[in-house]
Every structure is written in structure tokens, then in C-alpha cells.
Amino acid sequence: MMQTDVKAASLAASALAFDGRTRVRGLLVEPGASAGSVVLKDGGASGATVLTINTLAAGQAFNVVVPGEGVLFSASVYATLTNAKVTVFYG
Prior knowledge:
Layout: E1 7-11, E2 15-19, E3 22-31, E4 36-42, E5 48-55, E6 62-65, E7 71-73, E8 76-82, E9 84-90
Antiparallel strand pairs: 1-9, 2-8, 3-6, 3-7, 3-9, 4-5, 4-8
């Protein structure tokens, strides 16, 4: 089992969650008033889409548990948010 310190970045708008190689361990997603999504990209706003989570309109906040060692991002973790907020747990 790989041990690492887990850190978090809370975002209310599209932005870089972490600049560098890391693994995303989980997410806390807060849906907005209308349906939306959280899209995690590797390498900035124009990077490759690695993970997409769709949300319901006016839904409850929910956790996304990533199994195993997490999802690897080689360059950086960028979150594109549409009608949602997110906390990204990485390390």
C-alpha cells in the first residue's frame, strides 16, 4: 500500500487544483441550481479529460470515492466546473 499525505483544494470556479504530478483520491461535489458537471483534466484547461462527474439540478452534496491508488495526473489537475463546486483530495 502506498502512503502519501493527502491534501485538498476547494474550488467554486474552474481552476487549477494542483500543479504537478499527483493522484486524485476523492472528490466532494456540491451541485448548483441546474444540472452541471465536474471535469478533471490533466495538463491545464486544454489538457486531456481524465474524469467527468455529472450532477443533478439542486442535488445534495456527494462524495466520489476513487478506488485503489487513485487516478494519476501526470502534469496537473485542472477542474472545469459547470454549475457545481468541488473539493479535490489529492496526494
